Amino acid sequence: MTAVPQATVTPRNWIADFVLLAAIWGSSFLFMRLGTVEFGPVATAAVRVTVAAAFLLPLLWLRGLAPQLRRHWKPVFLIGILNSAVPFACFSYALLSITTGLSAILNATVPLFGALVAWAWLKDRPAGSRVLGLAIGFAGVALLAWDKASFKPDASGVAPGWAVLACLLACLCYGLAANATKRYLSGLPALVTATGSQLGATLGLALPALWFWPARMPGLQAWLAVIALGIVCTGVAYVLYFRLIEHAGPARALAVTFLVPVFAVFYGVLFLGEGVTGWMLLCGGVIVCGTALSTGLLRFGSSPRPKPEPKSRIDARRTH
After folding, report:
1. Could you tell me which of 291, 285, 255, 284 has the C-alpha nearest to residue 135?
2. pLDDT tens by residue, 176-229
3. Model-level pTM?
4. Which of 106, 173, 286, 305 is packed most tightly, with the most Cβ within 10 A?
């Protein structure tokens, strides 16, 4: 296999993808909110991944990558269930009750779950500062969730407490999927992973979507919202996301969720007239600080870890 040129993996080369992905995923909360009101959570997620798959498949064929998808379809389809089908349905459900800004702040816990999964599954034992970051991050989640701890349904029919738990389940799925992608699909082109995952999610949601399909046909605004979700926020976004995992590693790719709430809150205030409370901002800051520590992007002191990684592993990370 030809070595990847070092120039392709420097921060200068993936930082544009990072910011663009944050802006796109920030808008996904707005579009999910507009779609799920008429489609319902499951149908919104199903139409989203179906549109994404239809958008990506021709690109896959034109690039001549279909044989690679056929060889790796089983793990790629499973990634689609974990990384798209379940999280999309969970967030759509949550947005019936909570604001786009709050759901995006909860989405910032994805790297926390990614670090926990890497610790428990991949035996990537974190240093002391990273353990502290996990504790701080989840403390911020607990404080934020406490403010929405009611399990009594509101006017939407969904209790805020269940909405928060749905968001956290989605974040756990994202953490599992990111680590599984790095372990089992490393080296696979981003377009193959993105297309296959959306096909897997489409198959996984097909029957539930038929069961929960709305009795009344959704309006034009809802259709435009889910089409935008499928093409831009899923099709284009997942090519960027899997490319980030391949080039920068899962920890840095998951860290895009630090920036997503900024865009999501801005879009929510601008287009939906949502309010932003000081408590939300405070808890969001605690979550982001804890997440930065837990992923190693922020460290206390400069002392090395007790048992440094072998040089071969460090070089391998830099190559990806």
Report:
1. 291
2. 998 999 889 988 998 999 999 999 999 999 999 999 999 999 999 999 999 999
3. 0.82
4. 106
